[in-house]
What does this fold into?
Amino acid sequence: MYTEKVLEHFRNPRNVGRIEDADGVGKVGNPLCGDVMVMYLRIRDDRIEDAKFETFGCGAAIATSSMATELIKGKTVEEALRVTNRVVAEALGGLPPHKMHCSVLAEEAIRAAIEDYRAKRQRT
Ligand code: FES
It folds into this structure.
C-alpha cells in the first residue's frame, strides 16, 4: 500500500532533530489521531538554509516530514509556502487515500514555522 519511496523515507528519515536557536519553529497536531510534528527552520536572506523535524506520529507522517524538509531546503520562504501536502505526497510517489491527511501535518508545520519566523522578525 506504500510506495518504495515512502518506505525508504520512513526507514531512513532525513533531517530528524532540532535546530538550536532556529529562526522559525512550527508545532502542529492532528486532532483526529493526536500525532504531533515540530518543524525547525534556519533562514538566511529569506532562504531556508536548514530544516529539521521531530514527528511523533505514524509512518506516513514521518515520511512526509522527511520529504518536506528535503523539498524546502534551499528554497526561498515564498517558494517553501508553495510546497503543499500534495506536492510532498507526489514527491513520494503518492500516498494511500486514507493516509493523505497525514501529509497535511508537514504542510501546516512549514507554514507555522514560517509564520513564527515572520513574527519574530517583526519584533526585532
Ligand atoms: Fe496521524 Fe498519520 S495517523 S498523522
In short: The two ends are 48 Å apart (CA to CA). Helices lie at 4-11, 59-72, 77-81, 85-91, 100-123.
